[in-house]
Specification:
The chain has helices spanning 14-20, 266-286, and strands at 40-41, 77-85, 88-103, 106-117, 120-131, 137-148, 151-154, 159-160, 167-172, 183-188, 193-208, 211-222, 231-237, 241-248, 254-263, 298-299. By secondary structure, the protein is mainly beta. The protein has one domain (38-297). The longest helix has 21 residues, at 266-286. This is Lipoprotein.
């Protein structure tokens, strides 16, 4: 689920190093604390999401491509965020796969999220994203498998847009601006799931273990159906994605920072693909009434080949 964001710093690739450097900095510079930036602040605690946006499948391309500046989902990208939840060591590994899945008439990119407390897995989630032609990124569903003591116990929080009243939501605006109305990130009434977000700040400088980022977007995320859950401030770096999560008023605060940003090789990506396809297949047994209504995940087709139905 979005609000369950779901290691020493890794060596940076040349591409990542270039992203981290401020204008005029050299590759040998040591990251410094964020310098003051021009700040635009939005409302700290918005009260309502309003109505979920209308999903219009015809506004999405036949072949999904997510290249939003603040939430790029390029296959083979892996982000590791490390921190703690209520005082326990926590790690979230997010991998953008080269698989697609049709959800509510839209072909989506499959993202693989794994949550660990220490070395023990707590949740393994398939999440589904698509970007419309205007550049807005949508979240169309999630299949999160829950583990206890290393054993799979089910996937009670599964939701799929168009099934049992669930509605897709906005994962990232095309052009985030302070003052933009608060928006819905997803709605699933059968499991009491409703997440909302608003643009909190723009043009920030944020340092995390891998280095310092500039022109960072900060959103404020909350769940109206869980008022005691507090808020999460999430920082998004251009061309990278989510680099930091900070709690505001949470009963079980979750703090995470980016400790690794890499591109997987072919063999590594193939191993992830195999694991995700196995989880996708399990979903038809564990959640037949919800996840079972979707067609199986499939590898993306290279350009020039027929589009999958």
């Amino acid at each position: 689920m979005p609000r369950r964001l779901r290691a020493s710093a890794a060596l940076l690739s040349p591409i990542v190093a270039a992203l981290l450097l401020a204008p005029g900095a050299s590759a040998t510079d040591t990251p410094q604390a964020p310098s003051p930036a021009r700040v635009k602040s939005g409302p700290a605690f918005p009260g309502s999401c309003g109505q979920p946006p209308a999903l219009r499948p015809h506004t999405f391309p036949a072949r999904p491509r997510v290249d939003n500046t603040f939430l790029p989902l390029k296959p083979g990208t892996r982000l590791v965020l490390t921190g703690d939840v209520a005082g326990e060591d926590h790690r979230v590994v997010t991998t953008v796969t080269d698989l697609t899945k049709v959800i509510d008439g839209v072909r989506t990119v499959v993202v693989f999220d794994q949550d660990f407390n220490g070395d023990e897995i707590q949740e393994s989630e398939l999440a589904f994203f698509a970007q419309d032609r205007r550049g807005t990124v949508w979240r169309l569903g999630e299949y999160p498998e829950i583990y206890e003591n290393g054993e799979l116990v089910g996937a009670p929080d599964t939701w799929i847009s168009g099934v049992e009243g669930a509605r897709a939501g906005i994962a990232m605006l095309a052009r985030p601006r302070v003052g933009t109305p608060t928006y819905t990130e997803g709605l699933a009434p059968e499991i009491d799931f409703l997440d909302c977000a608003t643009v909190f700040r723009t043009n920030q400088n944020v340092c995390v273990p891998v280095g310092c980022f500039h022109h960072v977007l900060v959103t404020d995320e909350f769940a109206p159906l869980d008022p005691e859950g507090g808020h999460q401030r999430k920082s998004y770096a251009p061309h990278v994605g989510n680099i930091k999560v900070e709690p505001v008023g949470e009963a079980n605060p979750e703090t995470l920072s980016l400790t690794e940003f890499t591109r997987l090789g072919r063999k590594e990506l193939a191993a992830v693909r195999k694991e995700v396809l196995a989880q996708d297949a399990r979903g038809y047994e564990i959640s037949p009434d919800v996840y079972g209504t979707t067609p199986p995940a499939q590898p993306a087709r290279p350009k020039g080949l027929p589009v999958l139905p």
